[in-house]
From TrEMBL:
The active site is at residues 10, 88. Transmembrane segments: none annotated. Pathway: Carbohydrate degradation; glycolysis; pyruvate from D-glyceraldehyde 3-phosphate: step 3/5. GO terms for molecular function: phosphoglycerate mutase activity. This is 2,3-bisphosphoglycerate-dependent phosphoglycerate mutase. It comes from the Bacteria. Homodimer. The record marks 158 as: Transition state stabilizer. It comes from Aurantimonas aggregata. Pfam families: His_Phos_1.
Length: 206
């Protein structure tokens, strides 16, 4: 019984590089992002992981990261399910704005609250709690059964959609999640017990 779940944030995007709030906007990966995706695929291959199924969002940066990883894993036609529930948090009116310009306009602290707090939404967008309210049910109904059925499942998504998932898997509070960052292209491996609790977590850094 593998019961293995691997979470990967997409590689660096053009808008990560330009320091823009991205949310549901759809920029491509940078060259560095392409390399990060390939490295993630290679390290999972070296670790001997053989996936049964992959999930990703409706956004190109995650889909392209997944495709690059699957090429490295030698599994380019792995069954893949795309769902909007795994999309990045909707950044609302901040989408497309430069993060430093936003800090100048609204102040460092307010921007940090919008970016990392649990339940304060950015103007016109989703809080992490709102994001979790779509990510977690999707995990429970669609992803978790595949893992508990004994599968090895890959999820390639986004910084905040994965923060919402990690918060629930790790049992973190609204205060604890503030300090959690998900690095681009660094696989986070969970092995689950039969009762769905986490048996082991490994962050596969370089
Ligand atoms: O802009 C975004 O959509 C996210 C992820 O890149 O940014 P932040 O890290 O500020 O939540």
């Amino acid at each position: 019984m593998s019961r293995t779940l691997v979470l990967v944030r997409h590689g660096q995007s053009e808008w990560n590089l330009k320091n823009l709030f991205t949310g549901w906007k759809d920029p491509d990966l940078t060259e560095k992002g392409v390399e990060e995706a390939k490295d993630a695929g290679r390290s999972l291959k070296e670790a001997g992981l053989i996936f049964d199924l992959a999930f990703t969002s409706e956004l190109s940066r995650a889909q392209r990261t997944l495709a690059l990883m699957l090429d490295e894993l030698g599994a380019p036609s792995l069954p893949t399910i795309r769902n909007i529930a795994l999309n990045e948090r909707d950044y609302g009116d901040l989408s497309g704005l430069n993060k430093d310009d936003a800090r100048k306009k609204w102040g460092e602290e307010q921007v940090h609250v919008w970016r990392r707090s649990y339940d304060v939404p950015p103007p016109g967008g989703e809080s992490l709690k709102d994001t979790g309210a779509r990510v977690w049910p999707y995990y429970i109904h669609d992803i978790q059964p595949k893992v508990l059925g004994g599968g090895t499942v890959l999820v390639v998504a986004h910084g905040n959609s994965l923060r919402a998932l990690v918060m629930a898997l790790d049992g973190l509070s609204g205060e604890e999640i503030v300090g959690q960052e998900i690095a681009t292209g660094v696989p986070i491996l969970y092995r689950l017990n039969a009762d769905s609790t986490v048996a082991e977590k490994v962050v596969m850094e370089g």
